[in-house]
Amino acid sequence: MEMQIAEGQERSRVVLMPCDSYEEETLYQALKAGVEALGGMGALVGPEEKVLLKPNLVRKAKLSRAVVTHPVVMGAAARLLREAGVRKITAGDSCGVGQATAAAAAVGMDVVLEKYGVPLVDLTGMGEVPYEKGVQAKSFFVSREVMEADAVINICKMKTHALERITGAVKNMYGC
């Protein structure tokens, strides 16, 4: 069955790049190739934009538990943004348990982000976004930091979940 696209709308573009390692350069090259297949970082964000990297830092855990975004993935994304000339980059999450800064420190993500000059913030400020067309809700609470960003890059972690079976990009945005 062919999906119908309304006039004036584009299809979503998805790139899947195999990468069998969290080795820094290997992962960076795979992510770079994927971004280039989408037209390059410049096609996604401009150098003057405020970009928020949104990892999954659900709680403080050992890296071997595989419950948070791997710091090497965050480093590769930050590196690509810096190479594209993006100057205003932050990273942030609102953890289910504890603080994003503590969860990042537990896996070494704080060190990786510091290497690229990317501050990590806890998404704590609240703003309300109205959505008149909503059926279940007519407005949503979104962190101030997300609302102030020109672009949010969702760096989710594919994993299982007690409530959702599989988590991914949509579930990770709950932390906003």
Assign a percent range to the helix content: 25-40%
Helix-and-strand structural type = alpha/beta
* Beta-strand segment tally: 8
Order of helices and strands: HEHEHHEEEHEEEH
Report strand order across the widest sheet. Answer: 3-2-1-6
Distance between the termini: 34 Å
The major pleated sheet works out as: 4 strands, parallel
How many helical elements?
Answer: 6
Which ranges are low-confidence, i.e. pLDDT below 50, for 5 or more consecutive residues? none
General form: globular
Q: Round the Cα radius of gyration to an integer and report it.
A: 17 Å
Strand % is 15-25%
The residue-averaged pLDDT reads 87
Keywords for this structure?
two-stranded antiparallel sheet, 8 strands, 6 helices, 176 residues, alpha/beta
Description of the structure:
The protein is 29% helix and 20% strand. It has helices at 24-37, 71-83, 100-107, 109-115, 144-148, 169-172, and strands at residues 50-55, 88-93, 120-122, 126-130, 139-143, 151-155, 159-161, 165-167. The strands form 3 sheets. A 4-stranded parallel sheet has the order 3-2-1-6. Strands 4-5 form a two-stranded antiparallel sheet. Helix 2 links the parallel strand 1 (50-55) and strand 2. Helix 1 (24-37) packs across helix 2 and helix 2 (71-83) packs parallel to helix 4 (109-115). The mean pLDDT is 87.
